[in-house]
Design brief:
Blueprint: H1 8-14, H2 17-27, H3 41-45, E1 54-56, H4 62-82, H5 84-100, E2 106-112, E3 117-123, E4 126-131, E5 136-140, E6 145-149, E7 159-162, E8 168-172, E9 178-182, E10 188-192, E11 199-205, E12 208-213, E13 218-222, E14 227-232, E15 239-242, E16 246-250, E17 256-260, E18 265-270, E19 279-283, E20 288-293, E21 296-301, E22 306-312, E23 324-329, E24 332-337, E25 340-345, E26 351-356, E27 366-371, E28 376-381, E29 386-390, E30 395-403, E31 411-417, E32 421-428, E33 435-441
Antiparallel strand pairs: 1-30, 2-33, 3-4, 4-5, 5-6, 7-8, 8-9, 9-10, 11-12, 12-13, 13-14, 15-16, 16-17, 17-18, 19-20, 20-21, 21-22, 23-24, 24-25, 25-26, 27-28, 28-29, 29-30, 31-32, 32-33
Helix pairs in contact: 2-5, 4-5
Organism: Mesorhabditis belari
InterPro entries: F-box-like_dom_sf, WD40/YVTN_repeat-like_dom_sf, WD40_PAC1, WD40_repeat_CS, WD40_repeat_dom_sf, WD40_rpt
Keywords: Repeat, WD repeat
Length: 447
C-alpha cells in the first residue's frame, strides 16, 4: 500500500502479476469457482427468519448486502481486472475475513419433511443429503433447490460416498447391496451385490470402492463397470480408509490393519492400543495412520509400521478412551470427546498445544467438527450452536449459527464446510420441528 501510493508507475509495479502469483503459491492459494451471486434469487427468497428457529449470527440484510457488493465493485473493480493473481489473493484474504469477523451476507434456510438428516456432502455446485426416511437428495447450490432425488434404495442410507468431482454417488443399505448413481443426472447405474450382511463402512478413491461388511469380508469394486475386483477375508466392521492401493481398517479388536488390495496381502498390523479403536485417519501422502482409543492417540509411519507419536490426555475423562473426529492438517491434529476438543502437534513424539473445554470451549456435547485449511476450526453441538475457533491460538472466534432455544441436548447438528461455504443439517431430538438445512456462503462479496 505504501509503495503503490508513490505514483502511478509504482502502482503498476505493485500490481505485477508474477509478484502476486508468487504470493499465492507461497500461501497455497488455488483457483476458485466464479464469484458467487447466491445472496440473490433462491437464496434471497429463503433467507433466515424468526420462524426458522435458528439464528445466523451477524447477518446482513438483503438491501445492505446488495449495496455492499456494488460499492466494492465500484471501488476495486479495475484493480481486479488488471491483475488476476492479485484478485485471487485479495479474494482469498476476504473469504478468511468473512469467516472470522465480517457480517454474513449470504445464507438460506430450507425446511423439509425428511425425518432426520444423517449425512451431508458438498461437491462443486451440489450438496447431497441423506435421511432415515430413505431420501437421498441432490441440491443445486446456486438456487438452494433440489436438483433431483436418488431413487431405488430399499432401506435408509447407512452411508454414502461421492467421487471427487461429483460424477458418481455410491450408497450402502441394510440389505448388503451398494447402489451407484450418476451424480449429474441421478440415473441409477449399478447395483453391486455380493455381501451377505449389511455394509458397515466404505471408502471411495477415484472410481474404485472398498466396502466392509458384517459378513467379515472386504470387497473392492470398480464402480464404472459395476464389477467386484477383489475379496479380502477380513473383518472390517466399523471404519475403512483407502488410497487406491492400500486399505487401512479396524474391526472390533485393538489393532489397525493395512492391506494391499491388489496383491491381497497384509502389509502391517499396527499394535499398541489396549481397547478397541474408536476412530481412524489415513494420510497416504505422508504414509501416516492415526488411531484413537484407550485414552491415547497413536500416529504410525505406515511405510515402516512404527509408532512415531503417542498422545495422552484423555484418561482424565469419564469413559476414558473414547476419541472422535480425528482430522489432520500439516502437523496439527484435532480430536474431540463429549464437549472437549484437543489440538495436537504430532512432531517429535507429539504434544498437546491446546485443550478447549469448560468456559473456553463448547458447553454442550459436540456432534460435528471440521478443520479448515485456513487455520480455522468449526464445531457444532447439541445446543444448536455452531462455533468458529482459531486453531493456532486455541481461542474462540465467534458464533456462526445459534439456536433460539436454550434447552441443552435439544438438537442434533451435522455440517460440512469448504473454504467458502458451510452447510448444516439441524434436527430437534423430539422431532417437534422440521429438519432444517442451513447454507452459508462466505464468498458472497465482489470480486
Amino acid at each position: 500500500m505504501t509503495c503503490a501510493g508513490v505514483s502511478r508507475t509504482w502502482q503498476r509495479i505493485c500490481e505485477d502479476d508474477q509478484t502476486w502469483r508468487q504470493k499465492c503459491l507461497e500461501k497455497g492459494y488455488v483457483e476458485f469457482d466464479a464469484p458467487s451471486f447466491r445472496f440473490l434469487g433462491g437464496w434471497a427468497a429463503n433467507r433466515p427468519n424468526k420462524q426458522a428457529g435458528m439464528t445466523i449470527c451477524s447477518h446482513m440484510d438483503l438491501q445492505e448486502a446488495q449495496q455492499n457488493r456494488q460499492a466494492r465493485e465500484v471501488a476495486y473493480g479495475q484493480c481486479y481486472e488488471r491483475s488476476s493473481w492479485k484478485s485471487l489473493y485479495l479474494r482469498k484474504r476476504r473469504i478468511i475475513s468473512n469467516w472470522r469477523s465480517r457480517a454474513i451476507q449470504s445464507s438460506t434456510v430450507i425446511e423439509d419433511d425428511f425425518q432426520q438428516t444423517i449425512c451431508l456432502q458438498i461437491r462443486p455446485g451440489r450438496i447431497i443429503t441423506g435421511s432415515h426416511d430413505y431420501k437421498l437428495l441432490v441440491w443445486n447450490v446456486e438456487d438452494a433447490q433440489p436438483a433431483f432425488a436418488l431413487t431405488g434404495a430399499n432401506g435408509p442410507p447407512m452411508s454414502y460416498q461421492v467421487s471427487e468431482h461429483g460424477k458418481y454417488i455410491v450408497c450402502s443399505g441394510f440389505d448388503g447391496s451398494l447402489r451407484v448413481w450418476c451424480g449429474q443426472t441421478g440415473a441409477q447405474l449399478h447395483v453391486l451385490r455380493g455381501h451377505t450382511e449389511h455394509i458397515s463402512c466404505m471408502s471411495l478413491h477415484g472410481t474404485t470402492l472398498v466396502s466392509g461388511s458384517h459378513d467379515q469380508t472386504l470387497r473392492v469394486w470398480d464402480i464404472v463397470d459395476g464389477k467386484c475386483l477383489h475379496i479380502l477375508p477380513v473383518a472390517a466392521w466399523r471404519c475403512v480408509k483407502f488410497d487406491g492401493e492400500r486399505v487401512v481398517f479396524f474391526g472390533l479388536g485393538c489393532t489397525v490393519n493395512v492391506w494391499n488390495v491388489h496383491t491381497e496381502e497384509c502389509l502391517h498390523t499396527l499394535t499398541g492400543h489396549t481397547w478397541p479403536v474408536d476412530s481412524l485417519l489415513f494420510e497416504p501422502e505422508r504414509d501416516l495412520v492415526v488411531a484413537g482409543s484407550d485414552g491415547t492417540i497413536r500416529v504410525w509411519d505406515v511405510q515402516r509400521g512404527t509408532c512415531i507419536a503417542l498422545l495422552r490426555s484423555l484418561e482424565e475423562l469419564p469413559f476414558a478412551g473414547r476419541c472422535f473426529g480425528l482430522q489432520l492438517r500439516g502437523n496439527i491434529l484435532v480430536s474431540y470427546y463429549d464437549s472437549d476438543v484437543w489440538i495436537w502437534d504430532i512432531r517429535e513424539g507429539g504434544s498437546c498445544i491446546h485443550h478447549l473445554h469448560g468456559v473456553n470451549g463448547q458447553t454442550s456435547t459436540i456432534t460435528s467438527l471440521q478443520l479448515l485449511d485456513s487455520g480455522l476450526m468449526v464445531t457444532g453441538s447439541e445446543n444448536g450452536r455452531v462455533m468458529l475457533w482459531d486453531v493456532d491460538k486455541g481461542t474462540f472466534v465467534r458464533d456462526l449459527v445459534r439456536s433460539r432455544s436454550s434447552e441443552p441436548g435439544r438438537y442434533y447438528l451435522d455440517f460440512k464446510a469448504t473454504e467458502t461455504s458451510l452447510v448444516c443439517g439441524v434436527r430437534s431430538e423430539d422431532r417437534t420441528e422440521a429438519t432444517k438445512l442451513i447454507f452459508i456462503d462466505f464468498d458472497a462479496s465482489y470480486p
